Amino acid sequence: MKKSILMLLSVIVVSSCTSKKEQSAKAPTRVMTEVVSTARSLGGQTYVGMVEEREATAVSFTGMGVIKRMLVNEGQSVAKGQLIAEMDDTQARNLLNGAEAQMTQANDALERYKMLHDNGSLPEVQWVEIQSKVAQAKSQLEVARKNLADCRLVAPVSGIVGKRLVGAGETALPSQAVVSILDISSVKVKVAIPEAEISGIGANTSSKIKVEAVNGSFTGGRIEKGVQADALTHTYDIRILVANGERKLLPGMVASVSFGSEKSEVQSEKLSVPVTAVQRKADGTLFVWTVAGDSTAHRTTVTTGETAGNRIVVTTGISDGNRVVTEGYQKLSENTKVVY
Predict the structure, then answer these.
(1) What are the pLDDT digits (tens) for 7-30?
(2) CA gap 260, 311 in Å, rounded
């Protein structure tokens, strides 16, 4: 009986030890990794942008009146000086006829009184008054002529009609836009850049732009940087000038933008990792977690260089082909088994 009890106890102890050993063997920690390569560009971040016209001109009448004809449509090319719209000019013509009649009357009076003035029979005060009336009539005639000319709206610049805001039969108000004319001989691509990355972009930073709508890729030109951040998103607007000789790019198209560095040829030969992958020890030295061939994680001391966007150059400590942990490193300790 005692032997049976002892045998049963020994079995329980052995199974208990086996269970503890099984529990002590931790499952591998899941992490995300990246294989370091010199082929990876520091400027690899891609941004979403929007195509804008180089310049937009709102064209309007200077006076109020009913539009008689609209001669252009949206998307139509117009040349500088081309007639865009006409306003009902009945009133303007009547005013011009009246001004011309007054001018004729004033000139006739001037000729009659000039003979008296030359003979010394006309007081000087009356002669000055006659001259003043002629000048007033001339001024009114010029105003009437301009009012009639302003009933014809012509394009001040060449471009594409963006929007037609009024139609025939509608009343146009002074300075109310009738059409907008867009200059798209070159365009600008507007991109919102986070404040942490704006310092890495200069006026001459190279860029590549892809526009799916036209299935094309374009090389960006000079960059205009905004100096005021959006209060909600903390981003800065930049605008990239892009040649558009064939006028394929139209305002409103969505673009994918990637930036190179002003020293892209040098930086392309350097190793880089995400900024967040670099950790700092208590003594101030920097390290990254690398994964060995047996899938164990190890602290690897590194030294770093310049940053570009969300990446940082690693000058020593790792080499081409090393696998670096980029996410999940908070759960690691030396020799931890990982899966990725």
Answers:
(1) 544 544 444 444 444 444 578 899
(2) 13
Q: Classify strands 29-30 and 338-339 as parallel, antiparallel or unpaired.
A: parallel
pLDDT greater at residue 6 or residue 132: 132
**Of 209, 204, 203, 206, nearest to 50 (Cα)?**
209
Structural contact between residues 201 and 236, judged by C-beta atoms closer than 8 angstroms = no
The position carrying tokens 């082909």 is: 321
What type of residue sits at position 4?
S
Say if pTM beats, i.e. exceeds, 0.70.
Answer: no
- pLDDT higher than threshold 80 for residue 151: yes
Could you give the maximum distance between any two Cα atoms of the chain, in Å? Answer: 163
Token readout for 230 is 């959006």
Tokens of 64: 């109020």
The mean predicted confidence, pLDDT, of the chain is 85
At residue 92, the 3 state secondary structure works out as helix
* CA separation for the pair 112, 99 (Å, rounded): 20
Taking CA atoms, 271 is separated from 25, 34, 40, 98, 288, in Å, by: 36, 12, 8, 83, 13
Angle at 38 between CA 37 and CA 40, to 5 degrees: 75
Whether the Cβ atoms of residue 225 and residue 236 lie closer than 8 Å to each other: yes
| Cα 284 to Cα 213: distance, rounded to the nearest angstrom | 50
Q: Do 298 and 290 form a contact (C-beta atoms < 8 A)?
A: yes
